[in-house]
């Protein structure tokens, strides 16, 4: 392995040739003692990639007894080694030493000095005691082989071994990695920590920079506290090490070639990060405190705001984006992941975009969306190459919580073990330990493309917010905090004692920062004042359009037929399941005009034509490949082997991407992910389909706080489409309603579109309109279930080729307009029930009109339809849903306004189910009786 590393070094152009021997010597020194080489070389060697399946940093080759080499290197987490088979007392003790080393690696974090307040009461694990391993003080000076312990030599006394283990695993950094199955990942972590005893020697320039960042973090909070006393800001006091941590993450990721860093975080410390990391103008922040800020829409409180900027790193310019998010704690996590995945897809390189999410300790342990997000992290449709999670661990939860009430686990970070993420616990009052943990965590993420967790153990100096008095519920903790020297002052004192800075230079740091704030200057280091705008997502083409903006959604019939032919040409030797094969054959007939066009064909052709026109399409949900009701079959499965074929990905050689993934069984995190994706990809059709429409209940936070209000709070445009199966067919309360009423209740200021298409042509043009029209508004679709195969819910090729999306569909039969006194308005499936009953009863003086877009309400189009009936006396709204649900309550004022303009003396009445606490009946007989009655009521049949 040593030779392969040297080959890697020689292949690097800047150290090849005459420099190679020098670099090889440096590397040998680094292997023996990483602190013996200059910091920039240490950083370079730390970031070397793995070679031939082994880590690049390894113990120097030395003669190690074969038995202990096998035990130490092949089994990184040995169980208690069998002592019986070892012949001498010395060999038995050697095995016990190996077990002691393993115990420190596995459980040393439980002895580490992690709490800055010193309040933790933890008993050291018994297996870290030498007596547990039947070793005594008499053995301390005995020399043992170090196995794979990184000491720089093959043998050491037991005392030296214990000192190495204590320094590495029980200092101010405690790392959990025993839960990781990969021996390679474990050994990588061991080598990185043991090589420098988890305490690398940093140069004076690095130390001064860390102090400057701590001074900025503390300086902003003190400034705001004196200028705006008692005003909520959710300050960072007690966790100031977050600012140098983020600084190191950004700078080090830039050296890896990362181009974008997307950050998500809740309230605590957010203003500090915006000012000191992203470079928000202090003057803008002060204007927000003073009530002078200019705002658009409804706006949001300052500690929910996002920002984007560019900073310079050693690897070049890096774009930073802080995601907007509400008070719903961890919900921003999957939003960040979606935004990152979109940026990675756009760049075609997952290595160029890094997600960083800061969490609160109680939220990380308590919020279910955290688990959902972790479960997404390695799946095909949602992985982002690993996220750096930072837990700002206040140790007190949220307001008055005690740890025993906040979680059932030892650490707030234990949930991360489900995906075998390494967890770095670090004492926030040791900035150099924070720096080291940050570097190792990021390097691990870059090396293994997995999530990592940084648990920044700190405290909260001011309580939940600046108006809160925490000693009322946490008297002992806050007695300690009142006397606690700040992190910045502790570190400044250390550097003064080391001679790194003088007391005068320390004072200049704090005075200089305050002066910059007084003058409104940017205080973020490395901020690029004239950023490369090519790194931004350009939303300008989609700004300023009215919802009535025209979209020509027509496509020549010949083009549709050509695309259909390509879609339905299945590769040779790819056997399909019998029913699927029939669906493909039927679609061929539809393209040829031999069969009417059904829903599955029309929807598929909408995607195909958009792809042909250069628009990417992304479709996710719990059963989207097949479709919950087996209508889509966009992913075809080979019946003879494990293989699949996606026709929409094989239209042409250079087509845009068609992404389709069956999601994990999640609504909240997956929908939040797709929201994040859509806010970063304006030119693509992004769709999330619920397995049943009411499953969107599980994602209500995303709908309320992002999809329906994001534009007006944060000016974040979003073109996300939600397909929510909705229809009353006797399937009970949990599989009938997509809760149409909730979306209509949240509709205002043209924030979303709510559509209920009733024909295949309508869904075809609706989906095409969503991306062809320059408007970007979320589209909520009450998509059908029974209509997917309804014999009357069909369309023609001409309707696809020459039609458009109709917000209102008028009467389709020949009726005497003068004879019509009653018009029934409806949406969705109930139209076919009304139509068939009217035909059955021979009714000719009642017209049925469909409203296909319930919001924005198509008043002009509806008025045009109603004006056809000069003798109109009664307008009836008919719906399947109970009276307190569906569209009635939220839309009747729109209908009444139109009716007033057309026929002021006419009445508006309701026909539908009675108000109900439950969405639908659970018994088929009751459902049918209710359905029959509402149809009779609508058609005045008594």
Entry summary:
The protein has 942 residues and is of the alpha/beta class. The radius of gyration is 33 Å and the shape is elongated.
Report on the architecture of this protein.
The chain has 942 residues and is an alpha/beta fold. The protein folds into four domains: 2-170, no CATH class; 204-530, Thiamin diphosphate (ThDP)-binding fold, Pyr/PP domains (Rossmann fold); 557-802, Rossmann fold (3-Layer(aba) Sandwich); 811-938, Multifunctional 2-oxoglutarate metabolism enzyme, C-terminal domain (Rossmann fold, 3-Layer(aba) Sandwich), CATH 3.40.50.11610. The chain is elongated and about 105 Å long. Mean pLDDT is 90; it is low at 52-81.
CATH homologous superfamily placement of the largest domain: Thiamin diphosphate (ThDP)-binding fold, Pyr/PP domains
Number of helices: 32
Biggest beta sheet attributes: 8 strands, mixed
Helical coverage, percent range: 25-40%
Q: CATH topology of the largest domain, what is it called? A: Rossmann fold
The first-level CATH class name of the largest domain: Alpha Beta
Kindly report the oligomeric state of this protein.
Answer: single chain
Low-confidence stretches: 52-81
- The second-level CATH architecture of the largest domain is 3-Layer(aba) Sandwich
Mean pLDDT over the residues = 90
Principal-axes shape call: elongated
Protein structure class: alpha/beta
- Percentage of β-strand residues: 5-15%
- The overall strand count is 24
End-to-end gap: 89 Å
Q: Whole-number radius of gyration? A: 33 Å
| Number of domain units | 4
Spatial order of the strands forming the largest sheet: 3-9-10-8-7-4-6-5
Cofactor: thiamine diphosphate
Keywords: Oxidoreductase, Thiamine pyrophosphate
Family: Belongs to the alpha-ketoglutarate dehydrogenase family.
GO molecular function: oxoglutarate dehydrogenase (succinyl-transferring) activity
